[in-house]
Amino acid sequence: MTGTISVVMIFSIPIIAIITSHFQKQTQMKQSMLKDQLELEKLKHENFLLETEKMRLELDQMNLTSKKDEPRLL
């Protein structure tokens, strides 16, 4: 009986270490993935702002062009 308990104790320590190491690696991978997702969202937001500004400038240019083309009534 004591031998069985000793064997279980001896083999349970490495198994627990392996499981703990696995969970730590999983947590690190999730952290890395979240960091990458955050960076991607920042880039998407920056891209959205740039596109919005570009469209605004194009619209302003179109308005200026259309005002130049309109005949003036005096």
Q: How would you describe this structure in keywords?
A:
74 residues; mainly alpha; 1 helix; 92% helix; rod-shaped
Can you walk me through this structure?
By secondary structure, the chain is an all-alpha fold. Helices cover 92% and strands 0% of the residues. The chain has one helix and no strands. It has one helix spanning 2-69. The longest helix has 68 residues, at 2-69. The model has no long low-confidence stretch (mean pLDDT 91). The chain crosses the membrane at residues 6-23. Keywords: Membrane, Transmembrane, Transmembrane helix.
Which outline best applies? rod-shaped
What percent of residues are in strands? under 5%
What is the total tally of β strands?
Answer: 0
Please state the CA-atom Rg, rounded to the nearest Å.
Answer: 32 Å
Major beta-sheet overview: none
Low-confidence stretches: none
Number of helices: 1
The mean pLDDT is 91
In short:
The protein is 92% helix and 0% strand.
